[in-house]
From TrEMBL:
Membrane-protein topology: Multi-pass membrane protein
Compartments, record wording: Membrane
The species this protein was found in: Rotaria magnacalcarata
Name of the protein described by the UniProt record: STAS domain-containing protein
GO cellular component: a single term: membrane
Length: 726
């Protein structure tokens, strides 16, 4: 006795109706037997609301209110560093020290550059690198993530800072200028107040942390499941274009000061006489490039020369010198399994600072420099409660994007090195990084792909390497940071542009995805274009909406297949796809490759009836249609049996079940004998509760081959009785 092929080990509902349909098992026809009389049901797991409520209460009691005996376990769960610290081996320490110093060297230029990208003082980038690395080492479950400032999150933070500092500027307008089409700021000091910008960024970080903690408490980490790899690729590639665009003015030495005008146009004359508009909001990238090209004649030649030298040095080091250097260094036993890159970013910062200081590039050639960096930490300062409601939308977006980026990296390296990461604990760690860091002038942080890759290649074994990096950064912040005040911004812009190479190369994903599935390519393209043209906020929403639309579209208009017998075997394939799969005479085998639910049930009915030539309006067999060949019309008229392969139907809801039964009734009305094969037990239960046995006549079989065997027996019997040839 056989059960349903895909349900042999599953429980089934108990069905007590004894007046069900004919059941065919292994070609042996058993008449007037109930479904559960052939497939013996076991105890069914009740999933009622009361049971779910009891399970929730039990979970809260056992998980949220643990006993004292479980206290130690939950402390280890909350502080994962206790687990790896207990198992730490001294032989790992040299690798972690080398890795920590290497990562810290990368964090210095990247942190400063991404802070400027967020329209904040450069020192705040070092704060982000220090506090996020330190806190994640205590709370995080991944052994290899390198936390700190990244381009995507810095750009999103910069957009928020831009938008709110513009609103603050509006309160200091010169009244006599209000009648102009473009509103000018009263003074340069009113345009960007560093203290207010830091307040906005730290409040945003605090709000992001609160959102991440709430996601962790309510175990809502699954929300990132709606962000597909296709979406993330298109979104990050689009933000890379925006980041690149934001750095172009610094590379050419063009000043971006601000006015506030219609269509989010922002500009103000520079003190050196250069006037370059900055646009924010939708279509800003288009207008920005128009403005850049129209002002190329005002390029600062010295700044452009600094940028060109920096970019060339970085490209040569990464593409040519670094591979050669790593190959040579492997000859030494100490570095055999450790890959330490050439710290070209730090070298450029040091050389750029020295040259700028000695030649006074800012005073003599008007080259923009970092200016005041400061030394030490700011006094702890809480967030602005009045700003939090305004920042909530941006905080939710940044929290979700941060989690998606970090978890994808954490899972990748956890799988590679065979350890587990806890998604909810990761959310707690990210939330703690942002909340605690926000009191020390830190903006939102995330895991960096480039630094994490270096972390792994440099031989890092645990988060001890992050603690080593924090020690190195602490020295920089307390003693050395102020020495970089003469650093040209063009050097930092060049470092950011070169670091975007990996993200920009994700454009190749569009072609790769398009070769696999066109709909996913549409998701990538729409996400990319909306992010670039409409800005990061709109790009996120458009990308998610298009992704969900594609999912719904696949369910709304799923594939339908007419199957044929493959070389007279028990295998059945798509008849139009394989030349050696032939439709069986007088039999039409129909497969619907999706769940049958309320919004695609009509499509199921229409596809089924159309496949056998039934007119959807009259419900009768179609007469000769000029658009159909005579062979097709004869084929329709010769069909006597219909097999519906239900193996791909994983769900039937109430509306879908009613239309399913209606289609079966229409087939019965046209004198077709209908078979349902490989029907899942829970779908059969739905159809039984809708009184399928009273509404129509069908035969249920365990497999498709059983249905074909029974039809052949039926046709053979009719042939013998009525002398009808096939």
């Amino acid at each position: 006795m056989l059960g349903l092929p895909d349900e042999q080990n599953e429980n089934s509902d108990t069905i007590t109706n004894n007046n069900s349909h004919n059941i065919n098992i292994d070609g042996q026809f058993t008449a007037e037997k109930s479904f559960d009389h052939v497939f013996f049901p076991t105890a069914y797991e009740d999933r009622t609301s009361s049971l779910l409520f009891r399970q929730i209460c039990s979970y809260v009691q056992n998980k949220c209110l643990p006993s004292k005996k479980c206290g130690i376990s939950y402390i280890k769960l909350l502080f994962p560093f206790l687990s790896w610290l207990k198992a730490y081996k001294l032989t790992w320490l040299p690798n972690d020290i080398v890795c920590g110093i290497t990562v810290a060297i990368m964090q210095i230029p990247q942190g400063m550059g991404y802070a400027l990208l967020a329209h904040l003082p450069a020192i705040t980038g070092l704060y982000v690198s220090f506090f996020s690395s330190l806190i994640y080492a205590l709370f995080g479950t991944s052994r290899h993530l390198s936390m700190g400032a990244i381009a995507v999150i810095s750009l999103m933070t910069g957009n928020v800072v831009n938008r709110l500092t513009v609103k603050e500027t509006l309160t200091t307008m010169v009244p006599s200028l209000l009648n102009k089409s473009t509103i000018e700021s009263a003074s340069n000091g009113a345009i960007i107040d560093p203290s207010y910008a830091i307040t906005i960024a730290t409040t945003l970080a605090f709000t992001v942390g609160i959102v991440q903690l709430l996601l962790s408490i309510f175990h809502l980490g699954f929300v990132t499941s709606f962000l597909s790899d296709t979406f993330v690729s298109g979104y990050t590639c689009g933000t890379a274009i925006l980041v690149f665009t934001s750095q172009v003015p610094d590379i050419f030495g063009l000043s971006l000061k601000r006015y506030v005008g219609p269509f989010n146009v922002i500009y103000v004359p520079d003190i050196f006489g250069l006037s370059l508009k900055r646009y924010v909001g939708p279509f800003n990238v288009i207008y920005t490039y128009i403005e850049i090209f129209s002002n190329l004649k005002k390029t600062n030649i010295i700044t452009l020369l600094v940028s060109a030298c920096s970019i060339i040095a970085l490209v040569l080091a990464k593409e040519y010198l670094d591979p050669f250097y790593k190959k040579k260094i492997k000859k030494f036993k100490l570095f055999k399994n450790v890959q330490i890159p050439i710290p070209m970013e730090l070298i450029i910062i040091i050389i750029g600072t020295i040259v700028s200081y000695l030649l006074d590039l800012n005073g003599n050639y008007k080259v923009k420099i970092v200016n005041t960096i400061g030394r030490g930490f700011r006094k702890p300062q809480g967030p602005s409660v009045t700003l939090m409601p305004t920042l909530m939308k941006d905080a939710v977006i940044i929290a979700i994007v941060t989690f998606a980026i970090c978890m994808s990296l954490a899972k990748t390296y956890a799988k590679k090195f065979k350890y587990m990461v806890n998604s909810n604990q990761e959310l707690t760690a990210y939330g703690a990084c942002n909340i605690i860091g926000s009191f020390f002038a830190s903006f939102p942080s995330a895991a960096s792909l480039s630094r994490t890759s270096v972390y792994v290649n440099a031989g890092g074994r645990t988060q001890m390497a992050s603690l080593v990096a924090c020690s190195f950064l602490l020295i920089i912040i307390l003693r050395i940071g102020s020495l970089f005040e003469s650093l040209p911004k063009a050097c930092l812009a060049s470092i950011i542009v070169v670091a975007l190479k990996g993200l920009l190369l994700q454009m190749k994903d569009f072609y790769t995805i398009g070769r696999v599935t066109k709909l996913e390519a549409v998701v990538w393209l729409m996400t990319f274009l909306s992010t670039v043209i409409l800005d990061v906020d709109y790009g996120l929403f458009v990308g998610i909406i298009v992704s969900l639309f594609v999912v719904i579209l696949r369910q709304f208009r799923p594939r339908t297949t007419i199957l044929g017998q493959y070389d007279r075997s028990n295998a059945y394939k798509k008849a139009r796809r394989f030349s050696n799969a032939f439709e069986i005479p007088h039999v039409k085998i129909f497969r619907f490759e999706s769940a049958i639910i309320y919004f695609n049930a009509d499509f199921f009915r229409e596809s089924l009836l159309d496949s056998i030539g039934i007119d959807l309006k009259t419900g009768q067999q179609r007469k000769n249609n000029p658009q159909e060949s005579n062979d097709m019309c004869l084929s329709f008229r010769s069909i006597t049996h219909i097999i519906i392969d239900c193996s791909s139907i994983n769900q039937i809801d109430y509306s879908g079940g009613k239309i399913f039964i209606q289609a079966l009734k229409e087939l019965n009305g046209c004198q077709y004998k209908v078979y349902l094969c490989q029907l899942r037990y829970y779908n059969y239960d739905v159809l039984q509760k809708l009184q399928m046995d009273k509404e129509c006549s069908v035969i249920v079989t365990a497999t498709l081959h059983d249905a074909v065997h029974d039809i052949q027996d039926d046709l053979r019997e009719n042939h013998n009785n009525k002398k009808i040839q096939f």
